[in-house]
């Protein structure tokens, strides 16, 4: 479900701005670290959960405004490289600010312990994350499908020229899309923090998976990204049960296989 | 003898039918024009002929052989060359390189593709020079394509198609965006090419069509509505209705 | 000609300015950059996963050198082969797609190889890398001497440069550039574009593989980073900073990058941060790289002279 969240955010950014956001994984990591800092500062998980992704969204705004937008004229390659450089900077900044060692963070008291599902004992927090992420995906989906601005955004993915010809500020659209994507990455990160702990490398790992989700779901195909995210999440869980080490590599292998058979991804249109 | 034929050719994009049941026969050595109002499906027809799109229905025959479904990059090797409506050249290349690349593609042999110098292929170089000379651009051979005027770029557009030494030329609005003077030159150019090549021409400008065509097919909403020599087409009431006063008869 | 003389001079002079190991690293990275630039500068394909081929070649050749004591030239041959083969596999999946998809795929497949290397600790050593790679003697040449190895690598670099020069001046070079300039027209005039892209990929992979083996032998270890996306980004950065528009750009880029990373890494363990900043700065301000900045500087200079010589012309 988290993968769906990441995939959705990345697909949005990629679809609207037409660049693969290499910093997406870093934004995920920053979200997690922001959460830790926020909780330590405020003492309340829930407030932290709200503040952290907002912080990441703000960061996203700054990134888009200071860098991506300025490079709009230079072409996609340069915007891409900018996000790559940014990923490096953010990853290193995390180590500088929070240290190179992993941190662990416990879930809030309300969600500790497990739930007896009959056939297995499932951690309460994970359940919460699934539900929360699901709601977020749903909310984003509704925003994009039902609201006017969401429709504009989807139109922007399909045909940027048309949208700007219709008098809509295309640059503002980009900024908003980036901010939303960053928010989704940030909250995904914040939600993940109590599950597996934090480490500086978590952004990089997630970036690859997010790319796979978007590649499988079809570029700019938001529903596809969600579906692919779910699929991959499930697939990884299944593989992890039998062959833990290979679980992440398998994701990429599956992607390679799918693309061989269907170059447009599972849901892409071509 | 028909060198290029289509049989009930059709192309649909989902619910949109761009080309419907088009049966054409192009005589070798003739200049056959395809006209029709905007959106009639002319460029789509070209795209079908050049393998850019695969047809939904029907067949394409070249020299009697069924070439339906041949992929775009194979078409040039068969002897069909195309020029585009929107100028489609290699901007950073010199004019010479623009045509050389096209000439080399259909050269007899690609031996030494990776290690021989590009200058060591006399056949391609000769064809390239000839193509530039045919359109009158040889003096500017070393100029980069992005530095020449729009009119000259349309000439280059034509030269790239010629460089493949094809048997059939598919020209999509070669006079698009040209001034009257430039248009006159383009018409003279096309007329000079008649006979050496079979030419299929899409054009909007009626004076060009009437003055050079041996045969005209008129398309409207994806189907053929009329066919015949220029004089007949001019008198045809269906054609006039289709254009709705767009042509000065 | 001038460029060649400059290069020869720098080959001779370099080991006296920096440690032979760093000098060697510069030429190795230049070979890596040459391979990438065939894709990036000439074909217009931003491949973000070149370290896949570099790292794979390094691991395979390193393994054989370590456990089967093969000789140097066999190792090089295998490195080139592995680089080319892995590029064939990756390229085949990637060239079907263009633009964004292509870039993302090269990256994602890079990550696949990275994870395999990370997990397959019995062979690759995972995070610790694969140490203990020898530099065996050959034909009486003692490669363990840093200077001897430096000369060997420089010679291979010159060979690679010559090969790449032949390739870009050949019809293939023109065709690839044509694909970069106008893919649609290139196809229309009769080129099977995906196949040519694949060819460029394989050649680029071969160069990357060569660089990988030399790297493994230089440091005696194949670190996990050699197959990471950061490493892929490094060579992209180096090539861009040197200027992707010219054959020699990657060489300049290699100098700049290695000098930057080596000097920064002794100062601060967090030097990738500065690298990222440098990256961002270059992207924002110095787009054509050093080569373009240099030519822009000269144009500006000459226009200044003209203006000062002719004040009335203003």
Task: Write a short abstract of this structure.
Chain B is of the alpha/beta class and 249 residues long. Helix content of chain B is 35%, strand content 25%.
Could you characterize what this model shows?
Chain A is about 75% helix and about 0% strand. Chain A has helices at about 1-15, 25-40, 45-70, 75-100, 125-145, 150-160, 160-165, 170-195, 200-215, 220-240, 245-260, and strands at about 115, 120-125. Chain A has one domain (about 1-100, about 115-260). In chain A, β1 (about 115) and β2 form a beta hairpin. Chain A is built from eleven helices and two strands. Chain A has a two-stranded antiparallel sheet. In chain B, about 35% of the residues lie in helices and about 25% in strands. Chain B contains nine helices and ten strands. In chain B, a hairpin with a 2-residue loop joins β4 and β5 (about 65). Chain B starts with a strand and ends in a 6-residue tail after the last helix. Chain B is of the alpha/beta class. With about 325 residues, chain C is mainly α. Chain C has a domain at about 20-225. Chain C has helices spanning about 1-15, 20-40, 50-70, 70-95, 100-120, 120-125, 145-170, 170-180, 185-190, 195-220, 230-240, 250-265, 270-285, 290-310. In chain C, α1 runs antiparallel to α2 and α2 packs across α11. The longest helix of chain C has 27 residues, at about 195-220. The mean pLDDT of chain C is about 85. Classes of the chains: A mainly alpha (about 270), B alpha/beta (about 250), C mainly alpha (about 325).
Number of separate structural domains of chain B: 2
Shape of chain A: globular
Helicity of chain A, in percent? over 70%
- Strand-residue fraction of chain B? 25-35%
Secondary structure layout:
The complex is a heterotrimer of chains A (270), B (249) and C (314).
Chain A: H1 2-17, H2 24-42, H3 45-68, H4 76-98, E1 114-116, E2 121-123, H5 124-146, H6 148-158, H7 160-165, H8 170-196, H9 202-217, H10 222-242, H11 247-261
Antiparallel strand pairs in A: 1-2
Helix pairs in contact in A: 1-5, 1-6, 1-8, 1-9, 1-10, 2-3, 2-4, 2-8, 2-9, 3-8, 5-6, 5-8, 9-10, 9-11, 10-11
Chain B: E1 2-13, E2 16-27, E3 31-35, H1 42-49, E4 57-62, E5 65-66, H2 72-78, E6 80-83, H3 95-105, H4 122-135, H5 150-162, E7 168-172, H6 180-193, E8 198-202, H7 206-212, E9 215-220, E10 223-228, H8 230-235, H9 237-243
Parallel strand pairs in B: 3-8, 3-9, 6-7, 7-8
Antiparallel strand pairs in B: 1-2, 1-4, 4-5, 9-10
Helix pairs in contact in B: 3-4, 3-5, 4-5
Chain C: H1 2-17, H2 20-42, H3 51-68, H4 72-94, H5 99-119, H6 121-124, H7 146-169, H8 171-181, H9 183-188, H10 193-219, H11 229-242, H12 249-267, H13 271-285, H14 289-309
């Amino acid at each position: 479900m988290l993968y769906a969240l990441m995939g959705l955010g990345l697909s949005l950014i990629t679809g609207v701005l037409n660049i693969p956001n290499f910093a997406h994984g870093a934004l995920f990591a920053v979200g997690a670290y922001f959460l830790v800092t926020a909780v330590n500062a405020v003492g309340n998980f829930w407030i932290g959960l709200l503040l952290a992704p907002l912080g990441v969204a703000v960061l996203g705004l700054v990134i888009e405004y200071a860098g991506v937008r300025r490079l709009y004229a230079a072409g996609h390659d340069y915007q891409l490289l900018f996000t790559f450089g940014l990923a490096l900077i953010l990853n290193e900044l995390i180590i500088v600010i929070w240290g190179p060692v992993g941190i662990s963070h416990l879930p809030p008291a309300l969600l500790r312990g497990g739930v007896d599902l009959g056939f297995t004992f499932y951690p309460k927090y994970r359940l919460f994350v699934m539900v929360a992420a699901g709601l977020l995906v749903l909310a984003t989906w509704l925003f994009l499908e039902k609201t006017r601005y969401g429709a504009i955004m989807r139109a922007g993915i399909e045909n940027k020229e048309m949208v700007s010809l219709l008098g809509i500020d295309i640059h503002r659209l980009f900024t908003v899309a980036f901010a939303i994507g960053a928010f989704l990455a940030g909250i995904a990160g914040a939600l993940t923090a109590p599950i597996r702990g934090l480490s500086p490398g978590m952004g990089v790992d997630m970036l690859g998976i997010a790319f796979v989700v978007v590649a499988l779901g079809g570029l700019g195909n938001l529903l596809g990204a969600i579906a692919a995210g779910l699929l991959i999440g499930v697939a990884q869980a299944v593989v992890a049960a039998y062959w833990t080490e290979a679980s992440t590599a398998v994701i990429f292998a599956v992607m390679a296989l799918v693309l061989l058979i269907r170059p447009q991804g599972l849901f892409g249109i071509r | 003898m028909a060198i290029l034929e289509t049989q009930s050719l059709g192309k649909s994009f989902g619910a949109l039918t761009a080309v419907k049941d088009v049966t054409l026969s192009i005589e070798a050595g003739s200049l056959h024009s395809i006209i029709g109002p905007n959106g009639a499906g002319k460029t789509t027809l070209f795209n079908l002929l050049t393998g850019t799109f695969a047809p939904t229905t029907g067949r394409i025959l070249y020299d009697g052989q069924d070439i339906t479904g041949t992929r775009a990059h194979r078409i040039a090797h068969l002897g069909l060359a195309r020029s585009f409506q929107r100028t489609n050249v290699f901007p950073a290349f010199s004019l010479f390189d623009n045509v050389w690349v096209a000439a080399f593609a259909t050269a007899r042999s690609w031996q030494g593709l990776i290690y021989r110098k590009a200058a060591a292929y006399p056949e391609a170089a000769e064809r390239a020079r000839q193509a530039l000379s045919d359109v009158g651009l040889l003096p500017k051979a070393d100029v980069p394509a992005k530095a020449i005027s729009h009119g000259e770029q349309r000439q280059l557009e034509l030269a790239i198609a010629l460089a493949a030494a094809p048997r059939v030329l598919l020209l999509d609005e070669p006079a698009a965006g040209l001034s009257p003077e430039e248009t006159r030159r383009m018409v003279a150019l096309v007329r000079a090419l008649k006979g050496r090549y079979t030419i299929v021409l899409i054009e909007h400008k009626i004076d060009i069509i009437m003055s050079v065509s041996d045969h005209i097919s008129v398309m409207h909403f994806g189907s053929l509505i009329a066919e015949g020599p220029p004089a007949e087409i001019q008198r045809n009431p269906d054609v006039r209705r289709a254009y709705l006063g767009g042509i000065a008869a | 000609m001038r460029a060649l003389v400059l290069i020869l001079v720098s080959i001779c002079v370099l080991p006296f300015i920096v440690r032979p190991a760093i000098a060697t690293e510069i030429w190795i990275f230049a070979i890596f950059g040459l391979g990438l630039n065939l894709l990036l500068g000439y074909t217009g394909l931003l491949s973000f996963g070149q370290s896949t081929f570099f790292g794979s070649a390094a691991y395979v050749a390193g393994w054989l050198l370590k456990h089967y004591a093969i000789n140097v030239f066999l190792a090089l041959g295998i490195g080139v082969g592995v680089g080319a083969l892995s590029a064939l596999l990756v390229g085949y999946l990637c060239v079907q797609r263009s633009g964004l998809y292509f870039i993302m795929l090269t990256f994602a497949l890079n990550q696949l190889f990275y994870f395999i290397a990370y997990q397959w600790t019995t062979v690759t050593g995972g995070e610790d890398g694969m140490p203990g790679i020898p530099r065996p003697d050959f034909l009486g040449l003692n490669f363990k001497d840093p200077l001897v190895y430096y000369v060997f690598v420089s010679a291979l670099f010159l060979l690679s440069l010559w090969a790449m020069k032949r390739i870009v001046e050949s019809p293939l070079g023109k065709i690839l550039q044509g694909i970069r300039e106008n893919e649609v027209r290139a196809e229309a005039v009769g080129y099977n574009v995906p196949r040519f892209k694949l060819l460029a990929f394989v050649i680029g992979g071969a160069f990357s593989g060569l660089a990988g083996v030399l790297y493994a032998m230089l440091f005696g270890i194949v670190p996990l980073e050699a197959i990471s996306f950061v490493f892929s980004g490094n060579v992209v950065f180096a090539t861009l900073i040197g200027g992707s528009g010219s054959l020699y750009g990657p060489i300049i880029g290699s100098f700049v990058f290695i000098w930057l990373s080596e000097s920064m890494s002794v100062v601060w363990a967090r030097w990738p941060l500065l690298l990222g900043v440098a990256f961002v700065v270059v992207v924002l301000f110095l787009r054509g790289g050093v080569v373009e900045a240099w030519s822009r500087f000269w144009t500006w200079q000459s226009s200044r002279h003209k203006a000062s010589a002719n004040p009335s012309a203003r």
